[in-house]
Prior knowledge:
Elements: H1 12-25, H2 47-54, H3 58-66, E1 71-75, E2 82-85, E3 100-106, E4 110-114, H4 134-143, E5 152-156, E6 161-164, E7 168-176, E8 179-181, E9 184-185, E10 191-194, E11 199-202, E12 207-215, E13 249-251, E14 278-283, H5 292-300, E15 303-309, E16 313-317, E17 331-332, E18 337-340, E19 346-349, E20 356-357, E21 360-365, H6 370-374, E22 381-386, H7 389-404
Parallel strand pairs: 14-22
Antiparallel strand pairs: 1-2, 3-6, 3-13, 4-5, 5-12, 6-11, 7-10, 7-12, 8-9, 8-11, 14-21, 15-16, 15-22, 16-19, 17-20, 18-19, 18-21
Amino acid sequence: xxxHFDPDQATVGSLGAAIKRLSAKRPKLEVPGRLHRIPVVxxxxxxxxxxxxLNLSRDELIAMHTRPIYRVFLVGFVxxxxxxxxxxxxxxxxxxxxxxxxxxxxxxxxTTVQDLGRPGAIASGVPPSGAMDRFAHAAANxxxxxxxxxxxxxxxxxxxxxxxxxxxxxxxxxxxxxAHINGRAAPMWTGIFLxxxxxxxxxxxxxxxxxxxxxSGGFDGERWLGSRSTYLxxxxxxxxxxxxxxxxxxxxxxxxxxxxxAGRQLAASMLPDYSExxxxxMAGPHLKRLDMTSRKALLGQVFKVSxxxxxxxxxxxxxxxxxxxxxxxxxxxAAGSIQVVNSxxxxxxxxxxxxxxxxxxxxxxxxxSLPAAAQLGPGDELRFRAVTEAQAGVMRRELSAALASxxxx
Length: 409
């Protein structure tokens, strides 16, 4: 029982004695209160976590939850909020730990939660998704003291404005979108301590297309098929399958107990050169379907990212490419595949690419060039250059060495 009283009118002792006298005279409650039947839709954001924790199916949980008649024990917290009970013991759960680390003041143009995706779901027709620039994503995590696959924020073209709700360590990598902390320019590719109340914002794009923000402990989010990555087409993963919006609170995936170390940074010689718009490619399975003029154009002329560019892929404006041969049966696809559609336009597939298709794949961007590809935006010009498998391997090992230099000792 909670009693509010005026200490000028009563003492604690006299009030306690009065409560005891009234309690002794209280009649037994024989007449039950009115029974209210409330229609409910079971689609809450925590439903999947609860069924998994209790090892129940959705239907079993609903049956258990709707079986009892509940009593209103208290109304409070906010007007009209009723505390009900008793809850069936089979549905008991510990109080959820609050691990909010950032509040979203402004969401930016397109800010999503991303990790390294769900490659194991490709066989079921689900795109791998995940961070577009996997190097920047992994580097941000390592600088924040995380494993590479922890979720980060992928900020496209313009970044969000966030306020720290607790002390934390962050790292910002990828595109230079003008990161600021409390109104002052913030360094990139290094770990930075934030105090509760500090503001992280972005002034505007200077170079590149996508920046990544990591926090020590990683960002939490809805898991779908083993990944927190946001897949916007089906509204799954991350922040309820959507971009951030003002008023969201971002939570930690793990509340780290290990010491956080700020100031670690990626050596300048190992920073990616996002101004290099020549992407290394290897021959695709259908390169020979291009006539000789088109093959020379593919590897010798300039292409431009059109306005039709998103996480699924980029349509490229440039010389038309002419194909020969019969229509193809659909086959599996990968990020970096360069398709040629019937009109002769080239398309470069990216993280949210379809898993199968029937357009000819004339080349594939090697994995070490995909970070640079992820930083291209509409209007950017690019070229392709052919490399061998051995050369592609050298490029990949260079990126791996850069990330290895950030690994905790």
